[in-house]
């Protein structure tokens, strides 16, 4: 399975489900690739952050597609939806939508008002996911510097993220209903392979 497909017009076309699965597959390719590298583990952390965030966005989207947006964008979209429902055909949709930040998404998936049943995370797991987000932001938005991190301090957030990603996917009706094509099994296998490789990583 490839990431989307290239149309006759030269556009790449794919949906969030394809993006998620291919991200997981690419993470497996990286994890199982030959050679050990400290940078490899950091890229796996970035991959795992992306997977968890993608899963949360999709489980939170809701029927109005606003559950994963920040508060301002939610208000603008709801206002527009209400106007169109009231027959205001001239109502302009919001020009730009912003995704809620990682911490907000994580709080929402633990709140029964957003998903039911809510995700149950203990204090240790929340601490590990905070570290995941902190490290990911440092590695993506970095200045010219160097890092000195213990392997376990990087490994634990990755493993926590992969485990929570699997739990979030169990809530995702929009993806789960297509599981007859093997999507759920493939993704769970990918997550297990990444966990196995990360667990064995030795700097």
Fold blueprint:
Layout: E1 5-6, E2 12-13, H1 16-32, H2 38-60, H3 71-85, H4 102-109, H5 123-140, H6 151-169, H7 173-176, H8 183-200
Antiparallel strand pairs: 1-2
Helix pairs in contact: 1-2, 1-8, 2-4, 2-5, 2-6, 5-6, 6-8
Structure commentary:
- By secondary structure, the chain is mainly α.
- It contains 8 helices and 2 strands, in the order ββαααααααα.
- The chain has helices at residues 16-32, 38-60, 71-85, 102-109, 123-140, 151-169, 173-176, 183-200, and strands at 5-6, 12-13.
- It has a two-stranded antiparallel sheet.
- β1 and β2 (12-13) form a beta hairpin.
- α1 runs antiparallel to α2 (38-60) and α5 crosses α6.
- The two termini are 32 Å apart.
- The mean pLDDT is 85.
Structural class: mainly alpha
Principal-axis shape equals globular
Written as H for each helix and E for each strand, in order along the chain, the element string is: EEHHHHHHHH
| Total count of strands | 2
Q: So how many helices?
A: 8
Describe the main β-sheet briefly: 2 strands, antiparallel
Q: Could you tell me how far the N terminus lies from the C terminus, measured between alpha carbons in angstroms?
A: 32 Å
Mean pLDDT: 85
The helix fraction, in percent, is: 55-70%
- Spatial order of the strands forming the largest sheet: 1-2
Low-confidence stretches: none
Provide a compact summary of the structure.
Helices cover 60% and strands 2% of the residues. It is mainly α and 203 residues long.
Attribute tags:
mainly alpha; 8 helices; two-stranded antiparallel ribbon; 203 residues
